[in-house]
Amino acid sequence: GKVRRAFAVRSPRTGFVLDKNIVEGARTRAGDDLYRIADLSRIWVTAEVYEFDAPWVEVGQSAQMELSFEEGKILEGKVAYIYPTLNPVSRTLTVRLEFENPEMRLKPGMFATVYIQHRRRDDALAVPTEAIIDSGRRKIVFVSTGDGHFEPREIATGLTGDRHVTEVLSGLEEGDPVVVSGQFLLDSESQLQEAIGKMAVQTGEER
Questions:
Q1: Using one digit for the tens of pLDDT, what is the confidence trace for 86-125?
Q2: Percent above pLDDT 70 for the chain
């Protein structure tokens, strides 16, 4: 029943002040955000997943995170939420991950690399990811045919697993020897030979 010049307003939550939008003597209205307070003992990490990988992401999957300043140290978390829309500019799907942060080492705004685990498949045919030449329209690997000869094979790929191998759905058979390094030189030479062949055919037609 009495007007007081000052009174205490206590935060309903414990945490860290992330934003402070009020100063002494300022005027405020109902609904204004005076402070933004967050409990950082568990944090959200938003990750951008490429469109072609989006069908393999599910809520509840295990996720690992590697910080840019601590390479090699892996933190364990899980997929908590998958946003229902795709970014029309980057063509990526936003996924929210949750990680425990008991030591407060993880800070809002940090950059990190995340890995999301799909169901393991042991019966898949796979090749080293670095062996694949991706032109955007097709994916090529070079297979050794012996005696220093190589031939390009167009393949269809599936999941990329264990960070360095890619599933092959078609185009290769088990045991085919593929080129892992230097394949870009082979690709350049094959394109040159193809261009020379086309020029020879065109010259023959003109004659």
A1: 999 999 999 999 999 988 889 888 999 998 887 666 778 8
A2: 84
| pLDDT for 202 | 54
Identify which has the larger pLDDT, 76 or 136.
76
Contact (CB, 8 A) for 94 and 48: yes
Task: Please check whether residue 21 is in contact with residue 32, taking contact to mean a CB–CB distance below 8 angstroms.
Answer: yes
User: How far apart (Å, rounded) are the C-alpha atoms in residues 173 and 157?
Assistant: 13
What are the start-end ranges of the H helices in the chain? Answer: 183-206
What one-character DSSP code corresponds to residue 95?
E
Range list of β-strands (E), 35-178: 35-38, 42-50, 62-67, 74-86, 92-100, 112-116, 126-128, 133-134, 139-146, 149-161, 165-170
Between vectors from CA 103 to CA 99 and to CA 107, what angle results, nearest 5°? 60
Q: Report the Cα–Cα distance between both ends of the chain, in Å, rounded.
A: 108
- Is the pLDDT score of 170 beyond 70? yes
Residue holding tokens 């020897």?
177
Q: Is 119 in contact with 60 (CB distance < 8 Å)?
A: no
Neighbours of 106 (CB within 10 A): 18
